[in-house]
């Protein structure tokens, strides 16, 4: 019985999954942060700008949520006093095509 164990072929040149994700992601700037090159000043600037943008986004979101939860409202009221007020004319028009006089007792039963 021959139990030879062959070493696994590990590809050390393959980038880590995080770098692969960063380069295939459409999230702006993340591919510049996780570059295949060594860490440079450009990479550090991208990290600073990305984190500051993320921080500003969170600040604005929290501010808007707090504003929404305060339930602010504005009421504007203009009052004008007049000695004589003319009541507007009111016309009631029956546009109902079904006449109550033509409805039978059976129709009323089925209508509810």
From TrEMBL:
Signal peptide residues on this chain, from the entry's feature table: none
GO cellular component, one term: membrane
Residues spanning the membrane: 43-60, 80-98
Annotated localization: Membrane
The keyword Transmembrane is assigned to this record: yes
Membrane topology note: Multi-pass membrane protein
GO MF annotation list: sodium channel activity
Superkingdom in the source lineage: Eukaryota
Main subcellular location: membrane
Record carries keyword Transport: yes
Keywords for the protein's UniProt record, in alphabetical order: Disulfide bond, Ion channel, Ion transport, Membrane, Sodium, Sodium channel, Sodium transport, Transmembrane, Transmembrane helix, Transport
Sequence similarity: Belongs to the amiloride-sensitive sodium channel (TC 1.A.6) family.
PANTHER family in alphabetical order: ACID-SENSING ION CHANNEL 1, AMILORIDE-SENSITIVE SODIUM CHANNEL-RELATED
Full protein name: Uncharacterized protein
Annotated organism of origin: Cirrhinus mrigala (Mrigala)
């Amino acid at each position: 019985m021959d139990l030879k164990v062959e070493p696994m072929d590990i590809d050390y040149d393959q980038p880590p999954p995080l770098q692969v994700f960063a380069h295939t992601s459409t999230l702006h700037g993340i591919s510049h942060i996780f570059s295949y090159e060594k860490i440079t000043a450009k990479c550090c600037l991208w990290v600073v700008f990305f984190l500051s943008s993320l921080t500003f986004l969170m600040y604005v979101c929290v501010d808007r949520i707090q504003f929404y939860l305060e339930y602010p409202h504005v009421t504007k009221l203009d009052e004008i006093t007049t000695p004589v007020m003319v009541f507007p004319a009111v016309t009631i028009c029956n546009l109902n095509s079904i006449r109550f006089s033509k409805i039978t007792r059976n129709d009323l039963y089925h209508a509810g």
